[in-house]
Request: fold
Amino acid sequence: GSKKCDSRGALIVLEGLDRCGKTSQCSRLLSSLEKSGHAVESWRFPDRNTGVGQMISSYLANDSHLDDRAIHLLFSANRWEKRSLMESKLRSGTTLIVDRYSFSGVAFSSAKGLDMEWCKAPEIGLLAPDLVVYLEISPEQAAERGGYGGERYEKLEFQKRVAESYKTLRDATWKIIDATLPIEDVEKQLREIVMESVLTCGEGKPLSELWP
Ligand code: Z5A
Reply:
């Protein structure tokens, strides 16, 4: 018979447009999983705390200019510098809730006109999420939430192109939640989907790599 892997944590990724509510939902999910006794951490990309992350942060704040391909590779490198820690956390049983991942990398860079396959290439070999949840909202509705700051990508026209890229990128395994529902309703749907994935990983689902 086939040998089962050990129990491990789940790699949960939340994706969506700016203002879709990912950050709010990640923190709610974190506390609900903690309360039910799970080992869990919440992560986000870009991780602005690393050296690479600081370059990304200054680019997003329009304090520096970088070639489209160069910044794409920095976003990817920012995930590569966290890969081994990610793997050891998951193998030691910690579930990771991750706010943005490789799909953001591909969606935002291809929205600038870069070839999608070129964008996907540097992500090959990163850990594949066990679950991708897309919080769906139209760019117009997201803009109405206000709080678009001065960061580089926070413009309606660009967010429209990002939404189109996400449409091309997503596959049948993604779970889509209507992000315009009240926060509590989104939270409830999200928790149910996530618990299912946490359970499967606890039962020994093997880790895999991008792109499946
Ligand atoms: N980027 C990239 O290009 N390449 C990459 O590889 C990666 C990222 C990883 C910075 O990301 C930018 O980097 C990002 C993509 C690009 N650019 N954009 N756009 P970031 O993580 O620093 O920023 P962000 O994720 O885009 O935005 P955010 O500010 O963290 O937004 P959010 O997490 O989606 O939303 P929120 O803060 O939870 O909620 C937004 C507001 O809506 C807030 O006032 C909430 O109270 C409200 N809200 C939330 N939920 C609801 C509901 N259900 N109803 C009504 N109102 C709600």
The chain has nine helices and five strands.
